[in-house]
Design brief:
By secondary structure, this protein is mainly alpha-helical. It has 14 helices and no strands. 53% of the residues lie in helices and 0% in strands. The structure holds iron/sulfur cluster.
């Protein structure tokens, strides 16, 4: 299988079955998303969503946050990972947002990375989600899933992974592809134990082919796993909100659960 065929298979699958894929962070405007993404570094979206309602109420814009101090902000985010650093970053970010960008979240990645607490990944998320730019934020899920499937080859760091991905994914699909890969990594292609038996991407996955080769055909009902359609499951049931993206991913490929008995290749 060529790399182009692999990309096409994976992207076609997601386009058909996960037409809506969005961040699971809760926000109502670019400023809130920026705050939430900064908080989400090495922390779960679920945990971030628990603290942001009160935080956004207390600091609804850059002016309010810039006028505060890290000790006060800390009290709102103490349950988040690295709260001390993040509180300092949030106040610093708001102050720079006011002094250099008129309180508006900038569009360019080069400008975004000037803000305290904003690295390339966070900047790419903002540029992609807020401004629909074809930027690919590579987090741990995107990095791992892309490598396993074979969308990237020998990428040594997130930047190399990002470059390979954007070179192959059509610009219009890059923002959604970021969420497809994150959600797939979060709910199916788990770090320690990829759930291959309920994954719909086996046909195009390098890791799967290497692990199981041709010994994947045993199906409890006696049928051979043969068609793509069989493997699709209910993932394409659709959804309307960012929360629906989570539902889609959780149900992703669950229709396969009863179909395959996987046996690892020996040797
Ligand atoms: S087949 Fe397995 S390794 Fe490949 S993407 Fe699916 S869960 Fe991940």
């Amino acid at each position: 299988m060529t790399k182009e065929e692999r990309y096409k298979g994976v992207l076609d699958y997601f386009q058909t079955h996960v037409p809506i894929a969005e961040t699971e962070l809760h926000y109502t405007n670019p400023f809130e998303l920026l705050v939430a993404v900064i908080l989400s570094a090495q922390c779960t979206d679920k945990r971030v969503n628990m603290v942001t309602p009160a935080l956004f109420e207390a600091f609804p814009n850059a002016e309010a946050l810039a006028a505060s101090n890290s000790e006060t902000v800390f009290s709102y985010i103490r349950s988040i990972s690295y709260p001390n650093n993040k509180a300092k970053h949030l106040v610093g970010m708001a102050q720079l947002l006011l002094s250099d960008f008129g309180g508006t979240v900038p569009e360019a990645v080069e400008d975004l990375v000037k803000l305290p607490g904003v690295g390339r990944k966070t900047a790419n998320v903002i540029a992609s989600v807020v401004y629909n730019q074809p930027t690919m934020a590579v987090d741990t899920h995107v990095f791992r899933v892309s490598a396993r499937i074979g969308l990237t080859t020998n990428a040594k760091n997130p930047l190399q992974s990002e470059k390979q991905l954007v070179a192959h994914i059509p610009e219009a699909l890059v923002p959604r592809a970021h969420h497809w890969l994150i959600l797939h990594g979060r709910y199916t292609c788990l770090a320690r134990s990829p759930q291959c038996e309920r994954c719909a991407l086996t046909e195009w996955c390098k890791y799967f082919q290497k692990q199981y080769g041709s010994q994947i055909k045993t199906i409890p009902n006696g049928k051979e796993k043969s068609s793509k359609k069989e493997r699709q499951g209910p993932e394409g049931q659709g959804g309307q909100s960012r929360k629906s993206g989570k539902r889609q991913s959780k149900s992703e490929g669950s229709g396969q659960k009863k179909r395959q008995t996987l046996t690892k290749k020996s040797g």
